[in-house]
Amino acid sequence: EVQLVQSGAEVTKPGESLKISCKGSGYNFTNYWIGWVRQMPGKGLEWMGIVYPGDSDTKYSPSFEGQVSISVDKSISTAYLQWNSLKASDTAIYFCARLPFTAVTTIYGSTWYGFDAFDMWGQGTLVTVS
Amino acid sequence: SYVLTQPPSVSVAPGQTAKITCGGNDIGIKTVHWYQQKPGQAPVLVVYDDSVRPSGIPERFSGSNSGNTATLIITWVEAGDEADYYCQVWDSSSGRQAVFGGGSTLTVL
């Protein structure tokens, strides 16, 4: 079965560090980017950033750059979202999602990525900071 | 940064057609994706590339995109369609950024 399975709920204190995970299975993990999306209590979806398991390339939302760290270990098909110092305002559900893409090598030798929709989501990880 | 505007709520009677809009500057030249999120569950992709249904999504779900408005259309609405719906695009104006609309709650009367 193709799925993303996230780590369990966490209850932490302000100032603590935390790393949550998202493990892919049933598909070639390096053929898709993985994105992270925040949902604060009673609110909408906010895109945080994405990571490419093939080379660990990351792209962050300006709203979250410097606030979190996104990483990946392709050897175990797992992506991570990490905080060094949590705040009460980080209390939210965090979803990971799979992201299909198209890669085009430009005439300058750089790679341009065309991103599609987030086609599969993890079950979410509730992080409570209190 | 690019902004997507959705109505907070849409109400429709069972069997009727629901239309959920997503407004954005020249959104018609972008590719729009739609997600359904039921309470306590993860989002599910219901329409991608403006109007394409993923495998397993009923034909009742469709989409359109033109000008400054994209629309998710749900025909023959059922009670089980009650959920929050989010539109999403990729914005290249400031790097590659995913942008979500604020979400619309569909209520089946």
Q: In words, what does this structure look like?
A:
The complex is a heterodimer of chains A (130) and B (109). Chain A is mainly β. Chain A has strands at 3-6, 10-12, 18-25, 33-39, 45-52, 57-60, 69-73, 78-83, 92-99, 101-105, 111-115, 120-121, 125-129. In chain A, strands 2, 4, 5, 6, 9, 12 and 13 form a 7-stranded mixed sheet that branches. A 4-stranded antiparallel sheet of chain A has the order 1-3-8-7, with no helix packed on it. In chain A, strands 10-11 form a two-stranded antiparallel sheet. In chain A, strand 7 and strand 8 form a beta hairpin. Chain A is globular and about 50 Å long. By secondary structure, chain B is an all-beta fold. Chain B is built from no helices and 9 strands. Chain B has strands at residues 9-12, 18-23, 33-37, 44-47, 61-66, 69-74, 83-91, 97-100, 104-108. In chain B, strands 1, 3, 4, 7, 8 and 9 form a 6-stranded mixed sheet that branches. Chain B is globular and about 40 Å long. The model of chain B has no long low-confidence stretch (mean pLDDT 96). The interface between A and B is medium-sized, with 23 and 25 residues.
